[in-house]
Write a structure and sequence with these properties.
Elements lengths: L5 E6 L1 E2 L11 E2 L13 H16 L7 E8 L7 H14 L2 E11 L6 H10 L3 E7 L3 H7 L5 H16 L5 E8 L13 H13 L4 E6 L7 H7 L8 H17 L3 E4 L2 E3 L6 H7 L5 E3 L4 E4 L2 E4 L4 H12 L21 H8 L6 E2 H7 L4 H10 L1 H5 L3 E4 L2 E4 L3 H4 L1 H15 L16
Parallel strand pairs: 1-4, 1-11, 2-3, 4-5, 5-6, 6-7, 7-8
Antiparallel strand pairs: 8-10, 9-10, 12-13, 14-16, 15-16
């Protein structure tokens, strides 16, 4: 099995935790920065030292073709710190010519000079966490920035791209947001139309549009438990998704994954690694890698992660060399996950091939086809020769119905006892 060519680095620090966030993050306060003596600077420096140690303790392998610095808020790091991380990856793995190097930026955490520093350090793609062009929505989501911050950040990124200093950039939006008060309804379809038009007007060559997910333990999760969170109904959410597909197609964006739209040549190469079922490296607090048929999840607290890195340096565990629960050479993802990630993509999956590689006979293909006959009849699921895919926009908008059936089917079928079953993930990151 070839070595991973993509790497994810988790930068857990942020100013504050958004109300929907359940990632492994460390809030440092609104005044935090990496500048010497600033609040949070010592925590950032100590964590980066651990991250560099983990990278140094990894086995050297193939040059990386994609690198993604996510979080958290990676733009809390200085350009010099970002550069040091990229240099460490280049020293350990090498960076392929034309490698895509993405940095997540928060609109309120950088200026044009800082952006120039990141680009000089080697960043050539930016993912901007805008989320909304409505100040009331931003406040309701727990975001720190304002619409003016977002609009200015978009202008800086567009200018850098036009000057040839930035290869590409992406803008995140959240659809299906909750009501902005106990006496108000969730934002309607016309509100979402306005959001999309403002996003298109920025000139962003890539848009990531995520439906809000309410996770247990988050602020929104606790509000939902108390009955205080009013989300849009399923019909409105589906209408918003359909409108996104329509308006963005008219603007020239290709819908290449459930949540992602790109102008020609601007699809995210790094995220395609995950969706294709390929392996990837991951480094940092709470991050999960996939290598040689094994998932490897890092601890989600700083103290536990420090102990984990020390144990890695002492050889007490590995980066997934096929010497644990997984099988060397086995597929990185079990069949159910391959289907879940594959059906998120526009091109879908070669269903018969995946079933065969999982040790399942042709009768299971017929069983699945029968199970999903209703979705086929409704035009949600399309079977085109060997490939199965969800239709756009209806199938992608209602993907959960199809994916839930697939998961229930896999729970019944499971890997056959005589098959070399793909390794189960080590955890979620």
């Amino acid at each position: 099995m070839p070595e991973p060519r993509g790497a994810y680095l988790h930068i857990p620090f942020c100013h504050r935790r958004c109300f929907y966030c359940d990632f492994a993050v460390v809030p440092l306060g609104d005044q935090a920065s990496a500048e010497a003596g600033a609040p949070g600077s010592a925590s950032i420096a100590a964590y980066l030292a651990l991250l560099l140690r983990e990278i140094a303790a990894s086995p050297g392998a193939a040059p990386l073709s994609t690198v993604y610095l996510g979080g958290g808020t990676p733009s809390l790091l200085s350009p010099a710190q970002v550069g040091a991380l990229l240099e460490s990856l280049a020293a350990r793995f090498g960076l392929a010519a034309g490698a895509e190097i993405t940095l997540e930026l928060d609109p309120a955490s950088f200026d044009e000079q800082r952006l120039s520093g990141y680009l000089a350090a080697g960043v050539n793609r930016v993912s901007l966490g805008g989320q909304s062009f409505d100040n009331a929505v931003l406040q309701g989501l727990g975001r720190r920035h304002h619409v003016l911050d977002l609009q200015q950040a978009c202008r800086w990124l567009k200018a850098a791209q036009q000057l040839g200093r930035l290869g590409s950039w992406s803008l995140d939006l959240i659809e299906a947001v909750p009501a902005l008060g106990s006496d108000r309804a969730a934002p309607d379809l016309e509100h979402w139309r306005s959001q999309l038009k403002q996003a298109i007007a920025t000139g962003a060559p890539h848009l990531s549009i995520y439906g809000l997910t309410v996770e247990p333990g988050t602020v929104f999760g606790k509000r939902a438990e108390r009955g205080e969170l009013l989300l849009p109904d399923a019909d409105l959410a589906a209408d918003q998704h359909e409108l996104s597909s329509q308006l963005l197609a008219e603007a020239g964006y290709g819908h290449y994954e459930i949540s992602n739209y790109a102008l020609p040549g601007h699809a995210s190469r790094h995220n395609r690694v995950y969706w294709s079922g390929a392996d990837w490296w991951a480094f940092g607090l709470g991050a999960t890698s996939a290598r040689r048929g094994q998932r490897l999840a890092r601890p989600r607290t700083r103290q536990a992660y420090a102990a984990w890195v020390e144990a890695l340096e002492q050889g007490l565990h590995s980066h997934g060399d096929g010497d644990g629960d997984g099988e060397p050479g086995a597929a990185s993802l079990p069949l159910d996950e391959l289907l879940l990630v594959g059906l998120r993509r526009r091109e879908g999956v070669p269903m018969a091939q995946l079933l065969r590689e999982a040790g399942l006979g042709p009768e299971k293909l017929e069983e699945l086809s029968s199970l999903l006959a209703c979705e086929q009849a409704q035009g949600l699921l399309l079977i085109e020769g060997p490939r199965w895919r969800l239709s756009d926009p209806a199938g992608l908008a209602l993907s959960n119905a199809v994916l839930a059936k697939l998961l229930q089917w896999w729970e019944r079928v499971g890997p056959p006892p005589t098959a070399a079953a793909p390794a189960r993930p080590a955890g979620a990151g």
